[in-house]
Every structure is written in C-alpha cells, then in structure tokens.
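Is this the right way to post structure tokens for a design question? Let me know if I should format differently. Anyway, here goes:
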C-alpha cells in the first residue's frame, strides 16, 4: 500500500496546482482529498497524448482507468494536457514534475513519450513509470502495449460482412508503424472474409503527429468524404481526435463508420452519429492504466513489456450497436475469427 498513511497527508492547495500546471505545460486537473509533495505519497498521474482529454478515444480511455483507480484507492490523481508543438524536453519536464510531486505511478499516454520517459525514469528510480504504445527499457518502467492488429482484424471481418459496394476505407492518423498495425489487421480481416472480393482504400492524414494527424477532425472528415466518393460504404479510422471527423462524414453520407480504442457508439459527444457507428475496435487502455496503478498499490509494480491481446481481453470488438446483429453472418464470423486468432489458427499481420 502507499508508503504513508492517508491520515497523515495534507490537502494540495490551489497554489501548488498552479505551479504544477506552469512547470509541466498544458492544463492540469488534480483530484483527490489528500496528498503532499513527497515522492511516492500520491497516486496515479497520466500525461495525455496529442488530442488530449475529450478525444472520445485513446486519451479518454486512459482517463477512465485513472477514474477507476481514484475511486477504488481513494487517493490524489492528476491528468495533464499536452501543448501544441511541444518538444521532448517539454515532455521530460512534465514527467519529472509529476514524479517530483510524489505521483506513483506516472504514465505517459502514447508513443511520443518514449524519449522523455527514457531520460526521466532513471532519475526517479523509486517511482514506477508506464508508457502506452511504446517499449522503454528500465527497471522501473512498464511498457503497456497492445495487439491492435487483432482487434483490427475483427473490424475487417465486420466491414467485409457489412459492405454492399465491396469497397471499404481505412483512415490512419499518422503514417507510423503503430498505425500500420491497425491497417494491416483490418486489410487482412477484410480479405480473408471476402475472399479478396472487397477493395480497401487506405489513407494517412499526415506523415508526422506535429502536422495534426491525430488532432484534426477536419482532416479526418475530408479523407472519409474522399473515400465515400469512391464508393466506400464502411470506413474504419485509427486517427485519435481526427477520427471524429471520419465518423461525422460517414453519418452524413449514411454509411458505416468503425470506431477505435473506446466504444465510440457509447460516447456521449458522438451521440448524433451513433446510428452509423457499426462497431469499434477496442483497446483497453483504461484497463492497462488501472492494472499498473493497482500493481503499485499492491507493492508489486509491473515492469517490462506488458502485452494486452485478445487472449486477455486487452483488445476486442464492441457489440453495443444492435444493428450489428441484423447483418447476415456478421456476429458469427467475428466470433469465429476471434476464436481462431486466440488458438493460433489465424496469424494476424502487423505490417
């Protein structure tokens, strides 16, 4: 458990909150009734990826994990937004500030925190760090990685069953290896299910994250509109906040969108479009965040590579939209593909 009793902690004042926001950059929200600026005396802190809280996807999933940990362990937490155009040095300062204030664990949400975490973790050996979607070496670092390609394969199965035009789309936020995993699994699922009869149109919004590939709904909307003009009637997006534009475009055209990371059919901000969100390829970022927090609370902190795949329900496919069940063969095909991925019959590509 925590290294000092909750009864001996003092409330964090407004002044220290303001100082934290200034030191770390971006905006910060800190919650909980107690805490002090001694190493290891506070709870979980997360530093968001590009797009920040409110993306209805990746970052919001991490926040859900933080909220679960805060409720269960009743401790002080913090979540901090990124700045537009920030550098690795800015990220280093953010992570170091959280560790110095006593947060444990400290999690960087997204591969962009890799260089910063590698630099900072060794300076705070008594703090457990976590990074989502990247591998960072360190005795006090847990690398929380996912089999995105497996969930994407299932999304491809659903798309192949749902399409009426035999053309489907994929919109990736940034042209990087992580997003290639989503595309590879999706394409394989489509092709295996359709016997090669369904065409997949792919597009990446930007070459780098700094160009807004994960944070520009207008770019996502334009890309989806272009694919829909080419007869795509199912569009899967792995584009963070930009994916909201993809979903909007699909709903406007009355074709299917497939969400990502969170169950986007259930997201309140996307409610106007929910009837056109067929499903979502799930990635349990919140579960991974919570698992690391719990391991620290239990004094058995996770470290090294922690892989979340179909076998452990770390990824999956949402079934919230009842219209999925109305498409002939879709539910059974997804269930069969899931079973075969888990037992090794289907080997899903990552590139």
């Amino acid at each position: 458990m925590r290294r000092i009793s909750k009864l001996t902690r003092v409330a964090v004042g407004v002044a220290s909150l303001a100082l934290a926001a200034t030191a770390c950059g971006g905006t910060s929200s800190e919650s909980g009734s107690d805490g002090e600026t001694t190493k290891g005396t506070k709870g979980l802190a997360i530093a968001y990826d590009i797009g920040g809280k409110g993306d209805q996807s990746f970052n919001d999933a991490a926040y859900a994990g933080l909220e679960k940990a805060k409720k269960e362990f009743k401790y002080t937490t913090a979540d901090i937004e990124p700045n537009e155009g920030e550098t690795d040095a800015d990220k280093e300062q953010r992570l170091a500030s959280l560790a110095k204030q006593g947060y444990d664990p400290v999690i960087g949400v997204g591969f962009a925190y890799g260089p910063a975490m590698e630099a900072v973790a060794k300076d705070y050996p008594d703090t457990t760090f976590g990074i989502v979607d990247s591998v960072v070496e360190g005795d006090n670092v847990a690398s929380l990685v996912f089999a995105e390609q497996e969930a994407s394969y299932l999304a491809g199965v659903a798309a192949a069953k749902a399409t009426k035009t035999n053309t489907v789309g994929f919109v990736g936020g940034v042209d990087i290896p992580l997003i290639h995993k989503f595309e590879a699994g999706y394409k394989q699922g489509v092709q295996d299910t359709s016997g090669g009869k369904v065409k997949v149109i792919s597009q990446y919004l930007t070459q780098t994250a700094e160009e807004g590939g994960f944070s520009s709904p207008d770019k996502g909307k334009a890309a989806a509109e272009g694919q829909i003009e080419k007869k795509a009637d199912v569009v899967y997006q792995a584009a963070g906040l930009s994916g909201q534009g993809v979903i909007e475009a699909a709903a406007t055209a009355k074709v299917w969108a497939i969400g990502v990371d969170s169950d986007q059919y259930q997201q309140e901000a996307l409610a106007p479009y929910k009837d056109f969100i067929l499903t979502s390829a799930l990635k349990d970022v919140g579960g991974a965040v919570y698992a690391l927090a719990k391991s620290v609370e239990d004094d058995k902190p996770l470290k090294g590579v922690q892989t979340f795949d179909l076998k452990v329900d770390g990824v999956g496919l949402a079934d919230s939209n009842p219209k999925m069940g109305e498409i002939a063969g879709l539910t059974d095909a997804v269930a069969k593909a899931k079973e075969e991925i888990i037992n090794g019959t289907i080997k899903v590509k990552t590139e």
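Format looks fine. Someone answered above. Worth noting: The longest helix spans residues 177-194. Residues 1-28, 31-38 have pLDDT under 50 and may be disordered.
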